[in-house]
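We now fix the convention by which a protein and its fold are recorded. Here is one such record, which you should read through line by line:

>
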Amino acid sequence: MDARQTVSDFLHGKMDILTFRKHYDKEPEINAFLQGIVDQIKASGGSFQKYPFPYPGKPGEIFYSDEGLSYLLAPETDPSLAYDCPPKYESVRQLLTYEFRLMTHNVRTAHGALKFYDEVLVLFYQVDPTVPHLPQYTEAFDFALEVIPEYLSGGEAEMYIQEHILPLFPETMKKTERKKAIRAKIKEEFPSEKGYPCWPQHSEWPLGKDGKPATYIGKGKSEGDLRRFRFRDESTGEILVVEQAY
């Protein structure tokens, strides 16, 4: 399939995000197409046209954004951009797959899917100003914010929720009842013996060898900025320790 057509199909809702991501990872032509858009603008000394996004919570209103992608146009030799993590100068492939963004661009989470979609949308908008905005990724993200607690947001925990819990409660349910049921199921599936972890960074609630969420059993010993969180794999009895630093 033609690279431009593949991107267009994704952005017009004819291809789901997981399928598109598989195409992107396996077909270098798609990345070359998107990178070509950036290179052409950069060569002409131009800038990104900002996309007219729907304003959250304000029907009919819009706001214009390039999703912060203007740094893709910065010269590689610009010394002021050399010390950031992630680096502000990136190729499109680095933007969408850089290790630092494994959480923020993980399309199997609501936040990651939204970021990935918005950035591909802004890139494609440069060559097709008629491309529409699909509400499904924003709606999924907003719903996730309402039902997934912060200590489970991102990483394996949220992927588990997205894949194994949300599908149990169809969107045909009354919204209030669905939220209540999902919250109750999340609490059941992610057991805790003593409160919940307050992660210095993003959630890293582990899964056991059986693929089920481990049980949180409390904090471990802290050392300076290092924090430890202890879990038990109920399928093996093994104690799992997650370390994070501020």
